């Protein structure tokens, strides 16, 4: 806005020019998003977003879901986009609202999930006065976004938004933040909208494919094909397995893949372990690594006496697709260059439920695998208890598996909200540690509000168990009487059944493997959300 | 760290050199904080903070309180520091942990609360690998901190921390963030610590005081004395009232004061109203404003057709103490220049409880005032229902009143944790809207864990009522069938009694004024926390 009147406390009147029928900047923003294929918004708005709320209300083809905490909204948008492949919108209130949503924006950015984060800003003429909620929104947004735009007039909103969406769709940019000054939202649009042309997708790099084929052929069983992608499909798993069979190389995925198709109709793929020592052991003989959509594997944290890079020193590294790009085409080209033909996966035996004893990581895996509905979406935040579950589910009904690439906990219940919203005909299974669940319990309310078909399993070990494990590994000594209270969730023990019921979600507590299997089967068969507190042995 | 070995994946071994008895960078940090008077830490640590956790565990004179969400930790540190006048420490896990704590850091910064925020960072040699949790911590921290430091060697940690504490104590800096690389934490200290000398406090500006006295004398009843301070004491209220009586000027406080002493032993002070139209009306006749620790009043949000500045155009403005500084000395000097003598406050009649009907803003005020224990600390996040409560409590037992200067909701339960920790012999009353409470419900768990004497009143109107009020005021039309669902907390209605019990806090629901009065009296008389869900008419 260049109108000098806007800066002396006498803003131009907007109410007389705009109304429900005269498009303003807010309408331009929402209209451009709808036109670009965005149909869903997860919102936690405030006063500065009321014009955007009004525009959302009058936009045909846009559905808005209210969340009680911003971290739920951003995680839900991540889950929605992972399952639809299309960006979802988030609507947040000024800098502090953005701050509350940033941890799950971080996760979305690391997972290369396309997402449009709209943050309301004070009217431009109000910024000089440092009002209570004033903050450096752009500064915050840059830390969790690939691009940040702040439209300066309603006439540029549609063009800038369409351009941003184009970049998201092409994959140049994943998390895009629009900082929307309130006067830009409430002032009328006067100009024509011009749209940028979409740019073409990059072509396949044939010489790189041939070089990778030669490398893997020469390396034999000292070769590694490492996969990473926003979505690792059945076909990609088949192609990778064929390449492994043809060359003798090991095939692995990154430790956390944003979305993987899995189950008994899919070639099983092994992950790089999370635990640094297990990862070093798993990769110690690799002489040549070919990366397809993957980054070179690194330790989750640094530890004294352990390296940051997980591949052995001197290991050769070649990439045939950039990190987190689509990988089917380069894998198909690599398989063709090697003459590797895909085969049907070997049908694994049916999973059997987890017996009748206490709940352990192994019985958890068996219970989950035996009861998993066809087409389920598993959102995994099982942290210290999940490794056997991932393995067991290779023999389960076909499903998608969503992992956290950003490592910020409090991710799985929000992402489950979004996945269930995106796929109303599929069941979502959210498996989360109790420590993680305590960051974003408000997600339960949006599950209840939307009658979302989500089964939440809280793995109640009543501790930040991973910290007790990590403390001595990182050289800080064993937890003792003074430090253990900083990682224990007892005194009081959270009652997750009551927390669920408080948010409108029915809950049940189980402490045997048999009861967990039964509770899972019942929850999956019951419309709407259910929470199961699984008390671990 | 300038050791080149640190950057090639072969970190210097630390475990062989440091142990529980050999001080490392973490010990240097915690030791400098303890020496500087910091005795309390609110923590939500992760792997990169394990050496800091170990150092906290072995530091005599430091107590650590675990919080289940970072926003609880930062709010608690704010409350602790407001009540003790000394900075508290917060311990957070990497960028995403900081992000979750940023909204309440924003509030603390706006309230000028001294606070040391320690954020663990990956080891310096690990940063090049962009591990999952890697983020721009300094970029995030700068948006909510007055100063950010990142020690580069253990030998500088104590010096840099002492310098930071000195700045906090002098008031140059309020929120200070220390980004602590993990290798700096785990490596041994080898050098002597040198401490900076404290700088002297600034002297009083006598000519400015005389000019302000002349201004107020000349303005008569068109004068305004506007107060703001980190702590507005009984004596400051008496001095301000004396100045008002001597000159005929109006005396007001800012809309939100971080901490105010109030009650029947204190001269009552009126606030600048939150609502922009009420504020403009209240200030419309002011010709000369004298600011004492206050900022010039501005609208909380911008609205079409309303100005940002709340004082009339042409109003003279003089400041005799900078925003959020201590104000007793300049007020005493101004009173002396005016020959204004303080008097005893007029004893207000005893508050009578709120009758037997439904709970309204008026009966809420009466119930709270009639039952408020001597020396109580009121943490006010009552939003749309609180104005009569503030007024009624002027006649209540002497108490402190804490307000949110930053406007980011989810503030009051965390701040109550800190206030109750700071003042174990006083009762804390936390009054919060249900929308606000849903941002940081995890605070209840730390209240239960600490047996903190907190009475939490949830004002359950089952809506973001303020948004429904604000929507038409800001020109976005009245809420309708499409937009009202974006601000209603029904379907499902949160059950706050169950949410409290789930976090280990006993709860009760009331829906009449008489029951609320009774529940308040009972809660105040019961050791430990109680939650009262007050269903509003």
UniProtKB/TrEMBL annotation, chains A, B:
<dbReference type="InterPro" id="IPR011766">
    <property type="entry name" value="TPP_enzyme_TPP-bd"/>
</dbReference>
<feature type="domain" description="Thiamine pyrophosphate enzyme N-terminal TPP-binding">
    <location>
        <begin position="24"/>
        <end position="128"/>
    </location>
</feature>
<dbReference type="GO" id="GO:0044281">
    <property type="term" value="P:small molecule metabolic process"/>
</dbReference>
<dbReference type="InterPro" id="IPR045229">
    <property type="entry name" value="TPP_enz"/>
</dbReference>
<keyword id="KW-0808">Transferase</keyword>
<dbReference type="InterPro" id="IPR012001">
    <property type="entry name" value="Thiamin_PyroP_enz_TPP-bd_dom"/>
</dbReference>
<feature type="region of interest" description="Disordered">
    <location>
        <begin position="1"/>
        <end position="26"/>
    </location>
</feature>
<feature type="compositionally biased region" description="Basic and acidic residues">
    <location>
        <begin position="1"/>
        <end position="10"/>
    </location>
</feature>
<dbReference type="GO" id="GO:0050660">
    <property type="term" value="F:flavin adenine dinucleotide binding"/>
</dbReference>
<feature type="domain" description="Thiamine pyrophosphate enzyme TPP-binding">
    <location>
        <begin position="395"/>
        <end position="533"/>
    </location>
</feature>
<keyword id="KW-0786">Thiamine pyrophosphate</keyword>
<dbReference type="Pfam" id="PF02776">
    <property type="entry name" value="TPP_enzyme_N"/>
</dbReference>
<dbReference type="GO" id="GO:0000287">
    <property type="term" value="F:magnesium ion binding"/>
</dbReference>
<dbReference type="Pfam" id="PF02775">
    <property type="entry name" value="TPP_enzyme_C"/>
</dbReference>
<dbReference type="GO" id="GO:0030976">
    <property type="term" value="F:thiamine pyrophosphate binding"/>
</dbReference>
<dbReference type="GO" id="GO:0003984">
    <property type="term" value="F:acetolactate synthase activity"/>
</dbReference>
<feature type="compositionally biased region" description="Polar residues">
    <location>
        <begin position="12"/>
        <end position="21"/>
    </location>
</feature>
<dbReference type="InterPro" id="IPR000399">
    <property type="entry name" value="TPP-bd_CS"/>
</dbReference>
<comment type="similarity">
    <text>Belongs to the TPP enzyme family.</text>
</comment>
<protein>
    <submittedName>
        <fullName>Acetolactate synthase large subunit</fullName>
    </submittedName>
</protein>
<dbReference type="InterPro" id="IPR029061">
    <property type="entry name" value="THDP-binding"/>
</dbReference>
């Amino acid at each position: 806005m260049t109108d000098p009147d806007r800066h002396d406390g006498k803003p131009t009147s907007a109410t007389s020019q705009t109304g429900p029928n005269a498009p303003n900047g807010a309408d331009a923003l929402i209209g451009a998003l709808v036109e670009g294929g965005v149909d869903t918004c997860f919102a936690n708005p405030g006063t500065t977003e009321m014009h955007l709320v009004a525009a959302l209300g009058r936009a045909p083809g846009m559905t808005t879901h209210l969340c009680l905490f911003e971290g739920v909204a951003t995680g839900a948008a991540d889950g929605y986009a992972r399952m639809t492949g299309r960006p979802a919108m988030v609507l947040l209130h000024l800098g502090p609202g953005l701050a509350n949503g940033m941890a799950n924006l971080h996760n979305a950015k690391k997972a290369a999930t396309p997402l449009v984060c709209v943050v309301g800003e004070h009217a431009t003429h109000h910024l000089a006065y440092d009002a209570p909620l004033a903050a450096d929104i752009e500064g915050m947004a840059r830390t969790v976004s690939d691009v940040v735009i702040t439209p300066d007039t309603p006439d540029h909103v549609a063009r800038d938004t369409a351009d941003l969406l184009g970049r998201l769709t092409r994959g140049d940019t994943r998390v895009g933040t629009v900082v929307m000054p309130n006067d830009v939202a409430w002032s009328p649009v006067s100009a024509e909208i011009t749209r940028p042309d979409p740019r073409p997708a990059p072509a396949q790099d044939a010489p790189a494919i041939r070089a990778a084929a030669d490398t893997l052929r020469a390396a034999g069983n000292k070769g590694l094909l490492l996969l990473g992608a926003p979505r690792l499909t059945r076909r990609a798993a088949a192609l990778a397995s064929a390449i492994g069979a043809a060359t003798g190389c090991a095939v692995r995925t990154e430790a956390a893949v944003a979305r993987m198709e899995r189950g008994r109709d899919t070639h099983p793929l092994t992950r790089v372990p999370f635990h640094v020592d297990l990862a070093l052991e798993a990769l110690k003989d690799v002489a040549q690594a070919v990366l397809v959509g993957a980054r070179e594997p690194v330790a989750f944290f640094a530890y004294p006496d352990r390296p940051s890079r997980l591949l052995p020193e001197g290991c050769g590294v070649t990439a045939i697709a950039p990190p987190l790009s689509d990988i089917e085409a380069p894998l198909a080209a690599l398989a063709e260059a090697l003459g590797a033909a895909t085969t049907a996966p070997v049908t694994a035996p049916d999973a059997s439920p987890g017996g009748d004893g206490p709940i352990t990581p192994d019985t958890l895996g068996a219970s989950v695998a035996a009861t998993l509905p066809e087409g389920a979406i598993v959102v995994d935040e099982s942290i210290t208890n999940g490794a056997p579950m991932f393995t067991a589910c290779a023999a389960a009904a076909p499903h998608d598996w969503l992992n956290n690439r950003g490592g910020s906990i409090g991710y799985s219940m929000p992402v489950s909200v979004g996945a269930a919203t995106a796929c109303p005909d599929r069941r979502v299974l959210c498996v989360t540690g109790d420590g993680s669940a305590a960051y974003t319990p408000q997600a339960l309310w949006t599950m209840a509000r939307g009658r979302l078909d989500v089964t939440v399993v809280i793995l109640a070990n009543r501790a930040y168990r991973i910290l007790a494990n990590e403390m001595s590994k990182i050289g800080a000594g064993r937890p003792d009487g003074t430090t253990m209270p900083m990682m224990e969730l007892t005194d009081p023990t959270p009652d997750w059944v009551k927390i669920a019921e408080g948010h409108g979600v029915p809950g049940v507590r189980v402490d045997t493997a048999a009861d967990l299997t039964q509770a899972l089967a019942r929850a999956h068969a019951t419309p709407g959300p259910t929470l199961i507190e699984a008390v671990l042995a």
